[in-house]
Write a structure and sequence with these properties.
membrane, transmembrane, alpha+beta, Calcium channel, voltage-dependent, gamma subunit 6a, elongated, 5 strands, five-stranded antiparallel β-sheet, PMP22/EMP/MP20/Claudin
Length: 232
Amino acid sequence: MKSSGDGISESQEGKIKLTLFMAVTGIMLTVLGMGTEFWVELKPSKSFDNNQTCLVAHYGLWKCCTKMIWVSDMDPKQEICGPLHLQGESNCTFFKFYTTGENIVLFQKTPEKDLTVVSAMFAIISLFLMVMGSICIIMAVSKGVQFFLKPAAVCFILSGVLIFLCLIVFHQSVLSFLASDQSIPLHHELSWSVTCVGCAGALVIVAGALFLVLALPYSPWEKCLPKKNSDI
């Protein structure tokens, strides 16, 4: 049995593995959100293009997609184009401002590329910290050394903070994009990729806090709720 001191007990090891599962879930959601282009959906009026089709768009950190939807497939009562799951001709392209610096034009508007690049950097650094935190936890469990729990906790908490900074900066870039031209009114909404990344940020922050608690030399529950000795 693994003992006390700087070592990890068997009961503590089980808690660490359970918390690591939570962190890994956050990492998977981060990868899913970062790799998809459903961060924001842009929908003009359904009569923007013509009476037969309308154009919608959605983009993420790396790629932008447009989709031509038939107006006849939409609810006659709705005023805006969509929803995105309707059948239509799609066209996707990667952002070129990461390579050539060339920006794109959507609905006569141009995204704020600097803010998009910053949000992408936050996401990449966050994912790197998540991986480093996971490596620290694996080393802690494999070597039975409690020391690695603290740097892992710091990595996970910082990664969660960076994830939320990424979302804030990205949302600001969307607002800047919408304000770049007022000639075409657009309805916009953050999509499911943002939900994935937001949930990931919350999970890794909670996991980091739990790792920090597990790294303490004493149980906080025993400190807060000391056992009462009863004399019979």
